[in-house]
Amino acid sequence: MSPIAELVQLLDLDVLEVNLFRGHNPPESWPFRTRVFGGQVLAQALVAAQRTVETATAHSMHAYFILAGDPQIPIVYQVERVRDGRSFATRRVVAVQHGRPIFIMSVSFHIAEEGLDHQMAMPEGVPPPEEVPSARDLPPELLDSLAPSVRNYWTRPRPVELRPVNLMQRLAAGNTAPPTEPQQKVWFRADGMLPDDPALHRAVLAYASDMTLLETTTVVHGTSVLGDRIQAASLDHALWLHRPLKADDWLLYVQDSPNAHGARGLARGLIYDRAGRLVASVAQEGLIRPVAPPPAA
């Protein structure tokens, strides 16, 4: 089974009871096996919430990561039906493992209606995804020269294909890299066709929105969340869904980091489709705690 087919399967939650769902974890071949990937919990929680709303569409969600998820056991999602109004509905989702909450999220739903329309324009001069190389297409000798953590991150199987516009700079990331502006642009899409289900496309976007974003907080300091000098973890995550989208077509993730202080960094993202429509906005604060280098062998 392909990674994207496995992701679709992961997002098809088991129904345990009314408002109670169970999500499974990916196979051993996937990344993030020491703990559950935050994007997976975001996506599964959104699926659970969507299963309890009939006519309205999710337009915003605000989440907190409380504890690292255990990849060895399923996650139970409890949905609270906070409100069902004429135009809006609200849900609260709690993800539970070992009898403790590991994640909480509020989701707002809105019935589509006509209104004002404007957006920030997509940046100009960004090369199309066909002109941006994938790490999987690079020569083996170049991949072999990379730090193992960086090479493994960019070449292992994943359900979402990533093409950073500044790929070579990202490949240099590790414990030390040339400092750059706290900005990056990444093309991404599901690595295969998805069923024609708008709710599933929103969930896959939620999954992908947690990828690469926290890295934007470290590049200005010449370090990376892929090295061993930074302890990194998502702390919270906000996602606004503005317009209909296709997660299996290329989307441009325009990211920046306006602030880092102490051991926390803030990152923001705007997600555009190929036509330049702004389909989503993201904000996330994460732990970026410097740690001492390991002792020399």
From TrEMBL:
An MF annotation (GO) of this entry: fatty acyl-CoA hydrolase activity
Organism: Ancylobacter defluvii
Subunit structure: Homotetramer.
Protein name: Acyl-CoA thioesterase 2
Stored InterPro entries: Acyl-CoA_hotdog, Acyl_CoA_thio, HotDog_dom_sf, TesB_ACOT8-like_N, TesB_C
Protein's UniProt keywords contain Repeat: no
Record family assignment: Belongs to the C/M/P thioester hydrolase family.
Catalyzed reactions: a fatty acyl-CoA + H2O = a fatty acid + CoA + H(+)
Pfam families per UniProt: 4HBT_3, Acyl_CoA_thio
